Hints:
The protein is an all-alpha fold and about 120 residues long. The protein has helices at about 5-10, 10-25, 25-50, 50-65, 75-80, 80-95, 100-110, 115-125. Helix 2 crosses helix 3 (about 25-50), helix 3 crosses helix 8 (about 115-125) and helix 7 (about 100-110) packs across helix 8 (about 115-125). The model has no long low-confidence stretch (mean pLDDT about 85).
Amino acid sequence: MNISEFLQGETGSRIISEISKKIGSTDKEVGSMLNEAASVLLEMLHKNSSSKEGEESLSKALEQHDGSILDNIPESLDHENTAIDGHKILGNILGEDRNSVEETLASKTGADASKVSSALVYLAL
């Protein structure tokens, strides 16, 4: 299953719906943002993990996340540390490129850059 298929499935639809509510957007707009953003984030993860140091950093980060966020999406997205964790993860994945990635995604999707930024925080989790 690829990321687009996941986002179109039941769990993906719930994620999109909850993120839409959190950032004040439509499901269609968020779905478009997440489809575009997922491939960029995966590409950057691949790039970052191509070195031994990057691979170790990614492995360490993944050990901290067990996938339980998907068990109760609304509650998980409302948790007080969710946005903080999402910002940290994005910083690690995108580094200095974060603003340009957000602007590019906003341009591709027609969404406001601030909404793209907010959606990315949740997608990174």
